[in-house]
Fold:
Amino acid sequence: MRPTTTPRALVVAAALLAAGCSSARAAELGAVVPDLPGAPTLAAVATARAAALCTATDGEAPAPPAEAYDQETWAEVAELSGRARVGDDGEGAAVARVRDRWRGDAPLGQARWDHVASATATCAGDRLATITVLARAPRAADAGAYGAPRHAADEVEVRSGIRYGVAPGLDGRPVDLVLDLHLPPGREGAARPTLVLVHGGGFAAGSRARHTDEALAYARRGFVVATIDYRLDPGAGASRARLRAASAAALDDGMEAVRWLRAHATEHGIDPDRIAALGASAGGQLALSLALLEDLTPGGPMAAVSPRVAAAFSTGSYLVPVPGVTSLGPDDAPVLLQHFASDTVTGRSWTHPTATCAAVRRAGATCDLVLSEGADHVVGLGPDSAIADEILAFLAVHLRLDG
Structure:
């Protein structure tokens, strides 16, 4: 979520006027930084990096901007920085001197940026450090060839009822775990991005068939798509204990499905490093878990195969970190959450998904948030979703769809 629209050039000009610059000079130097909307996450990181710049030695290389500013998804980030001594004319003039040195820097002269943030830190010895960061938000167009259908529906091969594992059912007897694969043509020698679509239903009901049409739509764009079934408990809503047990079983199954896809990647033209999970409602919680949680009970013939996805999208759900159980970290996969102002099924507001994103970002990972006005439960998962542009833009970056 990027809600702020502070015009940075006006802020800079005001600071320079306060420092005693003439209005003409203030406007000239303030305009060095483009007048673009701001972004709170960019500003927070820029503030920390400006403070670190105070103590950095000459020639010390800071973390690359693309890594430093990754709390949200950006298609591109550029950073300009500098230090200066604060004279009698004040901090505003010192900032102006730094920015004057930026004139002619390529990023400032380019029109592709969408957001800007600036920060200044006071250093020891009457010095300051200042940073400006420019960012370009991803767009659906960044998906390249995956952004539009390129295969006819009858060119997509559907392999139904593939068994990806076996697990004990509610009565203790073995249950086959199955998925359907939607395969675009031309998989020989290809390694294609793959989507796992996960149905909802409160861990009590639902079927992979719910997302067949969306799977076909994505496969027509060149994705390999799996729709999965997982174990359900029709009485999951009867108690917290049964709901927890049902969600834990579903997570085990989801992880097994990802392992199976990775283990059979060559056979089906799957890129094992570009698998994303998309889920709605309970399926959204499962998708988030595949991105953020470790497998606490690995076992079976594929235990050595990673169950982690490269990215996840969730609609109508969130994840509440539990101390001692949920261990978030900087290596977690990027996640995109969508939630309505009033969820018509859970009654929840924006508070819970916002808290999920805050926890993921604090841990050093990426979380994007789409907060939709009105009352509803979920949006679609497919390329005709109400937020299809946001989903495709997110996948374009994290599944490297331009590659």
